[in-house]
Amino acid sequence: MERLSLNETAGNAQQQQQQPQSQQQQHRQPQQNALGPSAPTTQSGPPQLPPQMFTTAAQLLDLTDKKLVLVLRDGRKLIGVLRSWDQFANLVLQDTIERIYAGKLYADVPRGIFLVRGENVLLLGEVDLDREDDIPTTVTKAPFEEVFELKKKEDSKRKQGDKKRHSELQALGFEPEHSGEILF
Amino acid sequence: MLFFSFFKTLTNQTVTIELKNDIRIRGILKSVDQYLNIKLDDIEVLDLDKYPHLSSVKSMFIRGSVVRYVMLPRSEVDVGLLEDATRREAANQVGKTR
């Protein structure tokens, strides 16, 4: 809490100027990425984490080459290995499968390599390889066609429900939440 | 930048995040960046039955723009200090626009 002071803004500006530099260093010496909490800090006062801990790039660095679940803004769930990324969280996934869920069913569709534009990312979860195969008993695997048909039905039902709710809200003078942005 | 700094003071605390699609995730706040993208470790999804795709996820990166709420541990927030800082920031903003 000591850091919530008037000088905070100036301090942050400095930090941000330093960030591009430290990112470059990361790329040159990946084995020495200095992201661990134990990395030394030069600042005095309360112990601080290094500033490069707090960039988008630093957050993605330790997810590289890991198996991830990527949820997109349109509700798609992709499972693949993160191979590359940049500061906008544009991502490259390898050996990707798309997992479609509908009702109590799911199906996997092999997709291959994905390059995802960062703005479409909703969340990125690291898969625990020990628990990867413990799929909850509430869902069962089914043929793609069956799941796809069910999903189409669910989607159109939800679309109608959303439309109705939006128009009711609008009649009451509310701006519907996340209108214009699809979220699942 | 005030809330960026504020969230930085909360790293390594357990927080619960509610996303705009109603998923609620509890986990240890590991990192936050200037867009308020959030990295959580040791996550636990509340109401997991509804979100089976997150069942084997242990840590996640959440894009700041999809967060609705962040629920914080009460004991870790100095409300008085935050209030002061917020007012100061607001005063600064007014000063800048003039």
From TrEMBL, chain A:
Q: Name one GO molecular function term.
A: mRNA binding
Q: Please give the GO cellular component terms listed in this UniProt entry.
A: Lsm1-7-Pat1 complex; P-body; ribonucleoprotein complex
List the biased-composition ranges (Polar residues).
1-13, 33-46
The keyword Lyase is annotated on this UniProt entry: no
Q: Domain named Sm: which ranges?
A: 55-130
Gene Ontology biological process terms, A to Z: deadenylation-dependent decapping of nuclear-transcribed mRNA; mRNA processing; RNA splicing
Broad class of where this protein is predominantly found: cytoplasm
What SUPFAM superfamilies does this protein map onto? Answer: beta-sandwich domain of Sec23/24 (SSF81995), Sm-like ribonucleoproteins (SSF50182)
**Listed Basic and acidic residues bias regions:** 175-184
What segments bear the compositional bias annotation Low complexity? Answer: 14-32
Subcellular compartments:
Cytoplasm; Cytoplasm, P-body
Write the record's keywords in alphabetical order, separated by commas: Cytoplasm, mRNA processing, mRNA splicing, Phosphoprotein, Ribonucleoprotein, RNA-binding
The segments labelled Disordered in the record are 1-52, 151-184
InterPro entries to which the protein is assigned, alphabetical:
Lsm1 (IPR034104), LSM_dom_sf (IPR010920), PTHR15588 (IPR044642), Sm (IPR047575), Sm_dom_euk/arc (IPR001163)
**Subunit (UniProt):** Component of the heptameric LSM1-LSM7 complex, which consists of LSM1, LSM2, LSM3, LSM4, LSM5, LSM6 and LSM7. Component of the heptameric LSM2-LSM8 complex, which consists of LSM2, LSM3, LSM4, LSM5, LSM6, LSM7 and LSM8. The LSm subunits form a seven-membered ring structure with a doughnut shape.
Q: What does this protein do?
A: Component of the cytoplasmic LSM1-LSM7 complex which is involved in mRNA degradation. Plays a role in the degradation of histone mRNAs, the only eukaryotic mRNAs that are not polyadenylated. Probably also part of an LSm subunits-containing complex involved in the general process of mRNA degradation.
Q: Which family does it belong to?
A: Belongs to the snRNP Sm proteins family.
Write the protein's name: U6 snRNA-associated Sm-like protein LSm1
Q: Which gene encodes it?
A: LSM1
TrEMBL record, chain B:
Where in the cell does this protein reside? Nucleus
> Which Gene3D superfamilies does UniProt cross-reference here?
2.30.30.100
SMART domains reported for this sequence? Sm
Could you tell me which SUPFAM superfamilies the record lists for this protein?
Answer: Sm-like ribonucleoproteins (SSF50182)
Q: CDD domains recorded for this chain?
A: LSm2 (cd01725)
Keywords in alphabetical order, please. Answer: mRNA processing, mRNA splicing, Nucleus, Ribonucleoprotein, RNA-binding, Spliceosome
Q: Name one GO cellular component term.
A: P-body
**Domain of life where this protein originates:** Eukaryota
Does the keyword Ribonucleoprotein belong to this entry? yes
Q: What is one GO biological process annotated to this record?
A: mRNA splicing, via spliceosome
GO terms of molecular function: RNA binding
Q: Which InterPro entries match?
A: LSM_dom_sf (IPR010920), Sm (IPR047575), Sm_dom_euk/arc (IPR001163), U6_snRNA_Lsm2 (IPR016654)
- Which part of the chain is the Sm domain? 2-76
Family, similarity comment: Belongs to the snRNP Sm proteins family.
What function does this protein fulfil? Answer: Component of LSm protein complexes, which are involved in RNA processing and may function in a chaperone-like manner.
Q: How does it assemble?
A: Component of the heptameric LSM1-LSM7 complex, which consists of LSM1, LSM2, LSM3, LSM4, LSM5, LSM6 and LSM7. Component of the heptameric LSM2-LSM8 complex, which consists of LSM2, LSM3, LSM4, LSM5, LSM6, LSM7 and LSM8. The LSm subunits form a seven-membered ring structure with a doughnut shape.
The protein here is known as: LSM complex subunit LSm2
